[in-house]
Amino acid sequence: MLDAVVALLPVLGFLAILRSMDSFKLVRLGSVVRMLLAGAALAHLGALVHGWLLHGGRVSATVLAHFVAPVTEETLKALPVLYLVLRKRFGFLVDASILGFAVGTGFALVENVEYLLALGEHGVLLWIVRGFGTAVLHGGTTSMLAVLSKAFQERHPRIGGAVLLPGLACAMAVHALFNHLVLPPMVMTILLFVTFPVLIVLVFTRSERATREWLGTGFDSDVEMLQETLSRDVTETPVGRYLLSLKSRFPGDVVADMICLLQIRMELSIRAKGILMAREAGIAVPMGEDAQANVRELRYLERSIGRTGLLALQPLLPGSGRDAWQIEMLANAGNAARR
User: Fold this and answer.
1) For residue 193, what are the CA distances in angstroms to 129, 141, 200, 273?
2) 194-216: per-residue pLDDT in tens?
């Protein structure tokens, strides 16, 4: 019983602490559970691959641990992160860190359960290394991958899934270093359990500061732009003049849809930032049917305007991944409320 507690609880406890540190409540519990399950499923897949390599005599156990496992396991754990990156589900470094750690936690739990079933009573020191070392390694490397991918996505938004490559290389390197046992196992375990929490706390501190700055400046600019689009003399504003210039390139009904889309985007952006501000203050704000109706209308207008029209609107639309993320946040919250 003690072996199971030491092997499984530390990484789960650290994941719970991470989520409790999220003052803006960026990550819903359902998202954490889905990433845990994804990590668990990928651990089973990894075990099958490694079993095939070992039992077929294709690699030795030493080669597998030192060179193969860091590549296969980190690549498998990167798959859910790739999905989240491509779907723009990371708004900030905080949610990237939590969801990445959740994937690694699910992976580590399955791996340690398999070891428990195979080895049984094997001494508590082994399970200290597995629970506080290897399990935190899995969570920490995937968290690092997600954070670095989010940071690269903000700097290079057009390169797609390639933003994972620097973080994946770092995750593989750290994993390989741990498996090579360049230090005694207990020393490596202590080093990991001290280093990763400190790094993640620094990420949280930086991200929460950036979130507050984004909320302050973004809220003001959204309100100002919405006022311009609703103004009676909108044609005298930079926004109005740009919209008028589109009349020569698009039919009048498409330009009208563009104006509606711009207005709805600003209203939803203001609402999303207001919800985050309320969450930080500990206030639960309901979504409201009007917000969900706006999200549905926004999706309809995007399809109606088409790719070319949306490209023409880019100078007026928010360009950061966070602005796309906040619309997804409202849409996902509405879907969860209906379920």
Assistant:
1) 10, 12, 11, 35
2) 888 788 888 888 888 888 877 77
Q: Which of 71, 95, 82, 229 is nearest to 149 (CA)?
A: 82
140-165 pLDDT, tens per residue? 999 999 999 999 998 888 888 999 99
The encoded tokens of residue 4 equal 């199971």
- What are the sequence ranges of the domains in the chain? 2-208, 231-338
Q: How many helices (H) and strands (E) does the chain have?
A: 13, 0
List the one residue out of 257, 278, 245, 271 whose CA is nearest residue 330.
271
Residue 339 makes CB contacts below 8 A (sequence gap 6+) with none
The residues, any chain, with a CB within 8 Å of residue 74's CB and separated by 6 or more, are: 141, 142, 145, 168, 171, 172, 175
Contact 95, 27 (CB under 8 A): yes
**Interhelix angle 185-230/252-280, nearest 10 degrees:** 130
Using a 10 angstrom Cβ sphere, with 0-12 exposed, 13-18 middle and 19 or more buried, the burial of residue 224 is exposed
* Spatial separation of the C-alpha atoms in residues 181 and 137, rounded to whole Å: 13
Full-model pTM:
0.84
